[in-house]
Amino acid sequence: MALLEVQDLHTRFRTEDGMVKAVSGVSFELDRGETLGVVGESGSGKSVTFLTVMGLVDPRQAEMAGSVRFDDKEILGLTTHGLKGIRGKRIGMIFQDPMTSLNPVKRIGWQLEEAVLIHNDVPRKEARRRALEVLEEVEIPKADTRMDDYAHQFSGGMRQRVMIAMALINQPELLIADEPTTALDVTTQAQILRLIGKLQKDHGMAVVMITHDLGVVAELANDVIVMYGGRIVEDAKVDDLFEKPEMPYTWGLLGSLPRVDVDVERLEQIPGQPPSLLRPPPGCAFNPRCAYVFDRCRTELPELRAAEGKDDHHFRCHLDGADRARIWTQKAAAIARGESAA
Amino acid sequence: MAAFLVRRTFWALFLFVAASMVTYILFFIIPSDPAALSCGHACTPPIVNHIRMELGLDLPVYQQYWDFVWNIVRHGNFGRSFVNGTPVRTFLQHEIPVTASIVFGGVIVYLAIAIPTGIISALRPRSIMDRLGMVFVLIGISAPSVWVGIMLLYLVGFRLGWTPINGYCSLQSSHQLGTCGGFWPWMSHLILPWITLAVGSAALYTRLIRANVMETMSEDYVRTARAKGASPQRVLVQHVLRNSMLQVVTILGMDLGLLLGGVVFIEIVFSLPGLGQQILLAYGRFDLPVIVGITMFACLAVIVFNFLVDVLYAWLDPRIRLS
Question: What's the predicted TM-score (pTM) here?
Answer without folding.
Answer: 0.83
